[in-house]
Amino acid sequence: MLFIQLVVDSLVLGSIYALMAIGFTMIFGILHIINLAHGELFVLGAFTAFFLVGAGVNFILALLIAMLVVAILGLIMERGVYRFIKKEAVLNTMLASIGLSLFLQNVYILIFGPQTQQIYGSTETINLLGIIITWQRLILVIIAVTVVILLNLLVKRTWFGKALRATALDPQVAQLMGIDTGRIRAVTFALGSALAAAAGALLVSIIPVSATSGFIPATKAFIITIFGGIGSITGAIVGALLLALAENLAAGYIASSYTNMIAYAFLVLVLLIRPDGIFGRRSF
Amino acid sequence: MLRVFALVSLVMLLISGCGGQITGSADSQGEKVVKVGVLEPLTGAIAETGNWVANGVKLAIENINNSGGITINGEKYKIKPIIYDTATKINEAMNGINKLVSQDKVKFVLGTMLTDQTAAIMQVAEPNKVLVISSVSAGDKLTKQGWKYFFRAAPYNNMSIDTAIDVCTRMNKKKIAMLVSNDAWGKSYVSLFPPAMEKAGIEVVGIEYYELHQADYSTTLNKIKSLNPELVILGARTDNAVAIFQQAMQIMPDIPLYEQGGAIPEKVLEALGPEKANHLFFASRNGPEGEEVAKFKEQYKKKFGEEPFSFSYSGYDSVYILAAALEKAGTIEDTDKVREAMLSLKYKGLIGDYSFQPNGEVNLRGAIAYIEDGKVIRQWADQPLPEWLK
Amino acid sequence: MNRSAELKRGLILGLVTLVVLMMVPFMVADEYLLTVLNMIGIYVILASSLNLIVGYTGQLSFAHIAFFGIGAYTSGLLGTKLGISFWLGLPAAGAVAAIVGFVVGLIALRFGSHIFVLVTLSLGEIIRLVFYNWVELTGGPDGLFGISRPENISLLGITWDFSTPAGIYRLIMIFAVISVIIIWLIVRSSVGRALIAIRENETFAEFCGINVWFYKNLSFTIGALFAGIAGSVYAHFFGYIAPSSFNTMEAIYLVLMPFFGGIGTIAGPIIGTFLLISLPEFLRVLADYRMTIMGLLLVLIILIMPQGIVGAIQSLYIRLKAGRSSRAEISAGSIRVNRGG
Fold first, then answer.
1. Which chain A residues have any C-beta within 8 angstroms of a chain C C-beta?
2. What pTM value is reported for the model?
3. N or C: more exposed end of chain C, with fewer CB within 10 A?
4. Widest CA span in chain C
5. ipTM
């Protein structure tokens, strides 16, 4: 029973991790950019949602607006910075992303201050077959799942999705086929950023977020991406859920202060066995 | 290639030589000033709290200067703060203290709020006889290094333990469990609490850690529940505390939790609402809030646009303590005299009544806070406890 | 210029630099400036050795800061718990760091560039968490106190007092210059040539008969060795160390140093280190905006000068020399993703 409760709770955290990771893996898989400023996109999503809800806006609407705002920031990032760095110089883009991260983090401190913010919602719980969960968290999971389903539809059923997959598979051929790969890249980045914003908006409703909160989620998104396989959405989801589960299980059952090492050790072990991540180098 | 290297090395040396001129300190305009260095993490992970402390310091200096400054041997001196950010990095703290001591030639420093950064700056301050007052660092090791020029004007870990033992004894709790964060603060509690508790005849039935990012505590709380403690000592900052309190109310409603001063009761009240938060109790960094505190809160709100918390009170107090010591010593140059003044000083601040031991450790009265009828009430720990707490 | 003349010129240059650096305390008495230079000196050793790994084998390692930490703790613990002198603690620190580096390399070097980054980051974090959690040994998050300065030594009739700012400065500068020279010699040797070949095209290098696995491991271990030595010097200079000096933020900051200056060059890490340590100090006057500007500068440098400052100067120099046409290919600088690596 305890275990099931734990699984359900991991689902909540895992869905947020999943949104972060999917955005990251898309950007990594299609644009070959390791965007370590992903955390700062997440934070902006959280802050935007916070201020909107504070101004009386409905949460779902605030979430959508946050996604839009951050998508725009993502576009600016891609068109303004990453576009100018050679695709092959992956490590250069990574370092540029570090610079962006440092810059944005401190800009946030200047604009929003260093305070942590949190959206305090209802703490009413419901009891489903002996498992306790708050309404808020339940809704969180539903929203996350909805977003993922919509994304999946976008990628599998629309023309845009097809163009996306073509660009991921082979950009040159895609270009020959008449696809404007530059535009696809920009839109993909914006989309990935929007997902990070969604994760941020959802997270700030259960945990406080501050200007400097972005680093850890970005690292986790990176870990999950590698773990699940670069470019694989399924891998990102599975990886996210597994990471959340591992964290909760470790915190619960292992009463040692060394639990904070578990995620890292686990990752290294997995990679030693399956170097391409669980789902391998799949592209969508 | 080697030419580049040579050229570059030369340029480096030139710049480093000029560096002194560019960053040299400015002269005062004929006004008498005493320079006070302030070192806090103003950017980086701990920026929020670091800024709280620094804001308290700024307000205090402003108040003192507006009323004429401090009086040394009949002359009025204004306080000139030199504030450097440590960016939550030890190397930056080192650079900061070196700059303050070598270039800005300060003899008095307020800061830092982090134990490891404070330890780092003492490596430079102590040999240079620069007096340092930290109003937040709680690590016990800081007063065990034999430093003469370090004063800790803050509630510290061992103090919290004594208060906790006292409260547990008066509540007649003989079996307790601990739930702490898996970080420096939590670890220090784990190394200090159990031996002291055992000595006081209180059994520690279990110790559990939680991760800072943890959102779900059900497994941990259920584990604690199965150990049947009569009370749980909780070490949690506001965010974790809110979640833990919420979940504990569902999982183990009959076991009280006593939070050890990491959470801000006002914020917990805001998060949970008066009904859910009723009868939660905490160790408090500061005692009952009287008129002085109310006045300070108003001034702070006016200047900084937000409610201050105990960390700002601490920053504020540290300035007044230093000012009092300077006036008592009658010098702004001789740090040995100021040190002696500190040792015989008694100051009533926002946090409580300060006095200092020979090793620089503070004597403060322990305090607790609890939430009742939608309000946060603070009292001294040795005062009688409310009925419902017993 | 032939090789032995180049060698002689390089060594003379190193010697001259060393002498000039030794003179500095006579001109500059400001302890603050000396301390900043000391930091630069220590981090130059770190950045240059990291450059061996990054610039010459093309692998970006975030574990380097952890080796620095291992050196610091080894030497610091030997000093405080066993009373062992710095002069013995130093080589011990180097050795332990090299061994750990070797093991980390065995695990991490199997992977291609992206995953290598993550694995080194993970392993580096694990090492830091050991410093943090093993409270009985390392003092945990509160850090290790009371590390003493190196004992005075007598050389050529002069006693070197390392408790003075000038004394420790000179020691650090000597270590820095010697480390850079040794690394330069390694790069000039056949080992260095093999490393460059691996960076340029790993598959082709393998094809040419270079044992890629051996050389990658070698450069990683040597890099870790120097990091350990830098760590020991750092511990005995500061007198106090704590795990927070070796976390991921610091790891990232360290990686930036060779990059800013120009990876794959000798001067690059020196310039990068100098800038990344001295710029925040110069910018202190800008208080609140300091870090914002640093971030912005970083992005600009990557965009405008991806080969780092030295690379940019070099290409400028060659372009001026060549006059018009033919943009000379600069082989030092940008990292490429190794296909099939």
1. 28, 34, 81, 84-86, 88-92, 94-96, 98-107, 110, 215, 219, 222-223, 226, 230, 257-258, 260-261, 264-265, 267-268, 271-272, 275
2. 0.85
3. N
4. 66
5. 0.80
